[in-house]
Amino acid sequence: MISPTDVPEFAGGSPLLEGAYRMARDAHAQRSNDGTNIDHPVEVAELLSAEGFDEQIVAAALLHDVIEDTDTEPEEIEVNFGHEVARLVTEMTERGDIPSYERRKAEHRTRVVGDRNVAAIYAADKLSGARELVDDPSSAPGAKVDHYLRTLGILCESYPDLPFLGELRSELERLM
Question: Exactly one of 43, 65, 69, 171 is catalytic; which is it?
Fold first, then answer.
């Protein structure tokens, strides 16, 4: 687990990534009593950084859950990190006005594959999530696993060269 005062190694030396980490850390700390934490977004960002994705994509990965999970608004992200980071984060944000889990996830999958960079963040997000499910299989309801399998399928079809897809497949096979 990352200490709340430490900046992850991959973010050190980059004002953009250090700022994104701090915003994500502070936003998630406000909600720490409900299970949200910074570890998942850091893992997603670290996966993307290790694959050589640019700083804007890595920054968006650090921030990818803050709109859904905290009181942070897209405008805050844009003011602090620019239009592109805010756009990527917004694309990674599920629409709250779709109450059905299946419909909400289907809409999000369809939207995500419209942009390769968003799809890369999404693939890293699902790999991180699948690893969490493997570590705690009791947290893997059938609908969630089905969503991950559908995600893998649409990502493989749309961007078969994306990193993480083979690892995601392997993790999902461990759940079955």
Answer: 69
